[in-house]
Automatic annotation (TrEMBL):
Coiled coil: 268-295
Keyword match Repeat: yes
Matches recorded under InterPro entries: TPR-like_helical_dom_sf, TPR_rpt
Protein's organism: Mucilaginibacter pedocola
Keywords noted in UniProt: Coiled coil, Repeat, TPR repeat
TPR repeats: 223-256
Protein name in the entry: Anaphase-promoting complex subunit 5 domain-containing protein
UniProt keyword Amino-acid biosynthesis present: no
Signal peptide stretch: none
Superkingdom as given in the UniProt entry: Bacteria
PANTHER family reported for this sequence: NEPHROCYSTIN-3, TETRATRICOPEPTIDE REPEAT PROTEIN (AFU_ORTHOLOGUE AFUA_6G03870)
SMART domains, per database record: TPR (SM00028)
Record lineage: Bacteria, Pseudomonadati, Bacteroidota, Sphingobacteriia, Sphingobacteriales
Length: 524
């Protein structure tokens, strides 16, 4: 098979794709033109749909139902096209870290096919059968070289990334597993852990992060594995474990930064923020505030040195610090920090919506929480609705990652509607949030059961104190289930203790013996 030989690929400052040839020459292609190779079918379909919908002479011939169907298809295809553009840019950025000339022939051929937008041919070349045949040949040798195993694992990672472009997460997961089995080095365990965290399969992610930790040969590798494991544990509400691992990672990064501050100051800032998030969730506010302030200071320092490179990190820390201040009733200071975070994230989301819209939705949701705490319920609902619209859009493309956020904002919006006596809308929001959270809890109970308890408490309150919804049986059922769940997490999640207290008040409201019920649960 004859094909062009490349050394490396990168995206230059003029947004060109620069391919370095083995003979030393360079081939430049406008990045937009390169992406068009992959999106042209969708672009063509978008044009056809726009022509059908916006040409008055044609649209009048269509039924209302047909117009609605075509509009929905146009929205879906446009989102798929935009998602492909972002993912292709990401895979090119990943290629820039790869010495293509040093790769094996199969990788070079597949890369060549990818550069020519022959995605199906590339995947066919990297077929499971072909890769398994290579593995068999390697296993038959008396001593398998590490380089050969790395190359084959890289092929699996390349295949996995291409499958992710096709949203085939199930087969991609098998490729990550295969890569980590073929080559047990730190890199491949970490890549598998990152993938399974991305698709919210926390048990698998934890397994791979722990394996990455055991395979780490250098302080930097250990610090990365510890940080990623701690982020996972934090999301799984395992705050003590997360605190321990963030603290270890931070110590390693501080040590590394004494030798190379330019490289590792950013990691210190990120880990400080992550640790502060956990401390805030544990209501250790003084400790959290110290770490947030240092993280913000470092992020501003880095941003002043490298303008535009650390805005996202700065916005994240400002957002989380503002949440801490809100929780401590320092509303005016929280508003200032949320406003700066919102300004940054709005700018970033305008420039790159696929990457930064999730962060914008987070800050909008949090500002809604602040508005709600200040009894500014009209403003709260406006911000919640903006956040909800973004999160529904994201969840339509990737429900595994973004459905939890949809449920969060639904629950928050319903709280605000309840305070405004809009009980019917509040009930609808709670009901949808509970359905989503119950579904999520079947997959990740450690992560999502506390959220189920939260929404059950809110519904129990409606069933108890709002005339049009008063229902003793449903109120008791929700409260008892909320208490049963919250007791499992109350030792390390202060909020769960609050859920228990509210639920007990509901039981008392209906004349139930609260102490007897708690004793019966604890005795089981």
């Amino acid at each position: 098979m004859s094909f062009i030989q490349y050394n490396s690929v990168k995206i230059d400052g003029d947004n060109n794709l620069v391919l370095q040839l083995v003979d030393g020459g360079n081939l430049r292609i406008a990045l937009n033109e390169f992406i068009d190779k992959f999106t042209h079918e969708k672009d063509q379909r978008i044009k056809e749909l726009q022509d059908a919908l916006f040409d008055k002479s044609k649209v009048v011939m269509l039924t209302e139902e047909r117009v609605s169907t075509l509009a929905a298809e146009l929205d879906r295809v446009t989102k798929e096209r935009d998602s492909l553009s972002v993912q292709i840019t990401k895979i090119i950025e990943d290629f820039s870290q790869k010495d293509i000339a040093a790769s094996n022939e199969l990788y070079k051929q597949a890369f060549n096919l990818f550069i020519n937008a022959k995605l199906d041919e590339a995947l066919a070349l990297l077929s499971e059968a072909r890769l398994q045949d290579e593995l068999l040949l390697i296993q038959q040798r008396e001593e398998v070289s590490k380089r050969e195993r790395r190359n084959l694992a890289d092929n699996y990672l390349l295949r996995a990334e291409m499958l992710k472009l096709k949203f085939d997460f199930e087969e991609a997961s098998e490729c990550f597993k295969s890569a980590s089995l073929i080559c047990s080095e730190w890199k491949y365990k970490l890549e598998a852990g990152n993938f399974f965290k991305f698709v919210n399969q926390f048990d698998k992610a934890e397994l791979y992060f722990n394996e990455a930790l055991s395979q780490s040969d250098y302080p930097e590798e250990k610090a990365i594995a510890l940080n990623n494991l701690a982020v996972l544990q934090s999301q799984a509400n395992e705050y003590n474990k997360a605190t321990e691992n963030f603290t270890q990672a931070l110590a390693l990064y501080r040590q590394l930064a004494t030798l190379n501050p330019e490289m590792f100051l950013k990691d210190i800032a990120t880990t400080l923020q992550n640790l502060a998030n956990v401390q805030s969730n544990m209501q250790e506010y003084e400790k959290a505030e110290i770490n947030y302030k240092e993280s913000i200071s470092l992020s501003r320092q880095l941003e002043s040195t490298y303008p535009g490179s650390y805005l996202n990190q700065l916005a994240a820390t400002l957002n989380n610090y503002a949440t801490l201040q809100k929780n401590r009733n320092a509303y005016d200071i929280a508003e200032v920090n949320y406003a700066e975070a919102l300004s940054i994230r709005t700018k970033l989301a305008t420039e790159n919506p696929q990457t930064f819209l999730p962060d914008l939705a987070t800050t909008l949701n949090n500002i809604g929480n602040l508005n709600s705490n200040r009894s500014q319920h009209v403003q709260a609902e406006a911000n919640y609705n903006r956040a909800l619209a973004i999160r529904r859009q994201l969840a339509a493309e990737n429900p595994q990652t973004y459905l939890p956020d949809v449920a969060m904002t639904l629950n928050n919006l319903a709280n605000s509607q309840r305070f405004r006596n809009d009980y019917t809308m509040a009930y609808s929001g709670y009901e949808e949030a509970l359905i989503i959270r119950r579904h999520l809890a079947t997959v990740n109970p450690k992560v999502f059961l506390p959220d189920v308890a939260m929404t059950l408490v809110n519904m129990a309150t409606l069933y108890s104190y709002v005339n049009i919804f008063q229902n003793r049986e449903k109120a008791l059922k929700c409260s008892m289930e909320a208490i049963t769940i919250a007791l499992q997490f109350s030792e390390f999640m202060p909020l769960c203790e609050k859920y228990i207290q509210i639920s007990c008040r509901v039981l008392t409201h209906w004349g139930e013996d609260t102490e007897a019920f708690l004793d019966s649960i604890k005795s089981k």
